[in-house]
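Q: Entry one of two.
A:
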Amino acid sequence: METLNFNVNELVQQYHDVCKSIPLKPIHNEEEYQEAINSLNQLLDAGGADENNVLAELVDALGVFIYSYETEY
């Protein structure tokens, strides 16, 4: 198994930077839900619906959070 080498502090900063644009976290209320839906639509418009597109995995991840919120509330 390959050992992953990364700087945790850098990774945390990059994650926070991504989350400023794309809410990659559990959704807790209607405002966060709408933000996630809007982000998902933008990603889909940018080609994320194509499974070969670099955005496809991001679309999938965001979709999991949206689905979880929709089934819980």
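Q: Entry two of two.
A:
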Amino acid sequence: MKRAKFLVPLLLALALSLAACTGNTEVTRVVTATPGPTPEPIVKEVVVTPTPPSVAPVPATASGPAIPQDKGYLVEEIGDGLYWVTEGAYQVMFLTTGEGVIAVDAPPSIGEKYLQAIAEVTDEPITHVIYSHSHADHIAAASMFPSNAVIIAQEETASQLERINDPNRSFPYGSFVGGSDVPMPTVTFSDRYTLEVGSQTLELEYRGINHEPGNIFIYAPEQKVLMLVDIIFPGWTPFEDLALAEDIPGYIEAHAQALSYDFETFIGGHLNRLGNRRDVEIQQEYILDMQANAAQALQTVDFFAIAQETGFGNPWLLFDTYLDAVAEECAKLTLPKWEERLGAADIWTVEHCFKLAESLRID
């Protein structure tokens, strides 16, 4: 396995829209961008007849509800005026309060369909917007909200977003995921913030770096709903490299932190399936299994045996070969238990193992 990373624009953008399946064909909405310093979004409908690759089948437990193809999104009430919306790849939630709508996040892949979903269930205006964190794929459509809406974010998120207007940026914020600059937060907080609007209450809490600095827990105590983005992927293995987590110990700890809340429904920000407490427990078990297997691989893969094969003349070749061997051994130990339990475990377990092994080595 080579560690060449193309974290990029087009691959991430391609993941923005999942397929709407009809028989043996898929109609996929692909968001890419024009080349150059000021990319423009390109949206195409691609019809393909997939050829089954040699990968493990996706378990039935990974599947969520079908997305109505006439609308291109699904909106459902979880309870007491709290709704979730998905187009198949991303998830958001909003609450009707009697005094206005509280909207959480604004993924470009959902875009104005988010506004349509809200209009389906209420004529209340959007008065408050919450940013879960600063990544463009989750909030770069926020400019569509009313300009007088109160925008709330953790202080670290606000700091990250200040870079949007940096004149030295090579490319505009959000341009590769179909989004654009977003309004800066008007209210920020450090550790905790309770938002009370009309009949609804949301508790926002920052418990340290996990996916990235500023990524918060968003809890609705009345409905017992917890939203935590880019950490837990109910029914699935996380996105590549533990969902690009910037702090691996913090990412692991976020599972226990999530379970400290009294919740019944979990919103993870991705794919078309809601979660529950058991989903969080299952992913925690998976991550801890991989961490233990990464530790075992670090103890058993023979660095000097690999050095005999590669020599010491090119140290990057030596370490690349060694660390890849560690990740492969970790995945070999992990997959027999998990390949049939989590969707795409066979795809990204090796990458997760690499991240966990590196964290064990240096964190």
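A: Comment on entry two: The CA atoms of residues 24 and 49 lie 6 Å apart. The two ends are 23 Å apart (CA to CA).
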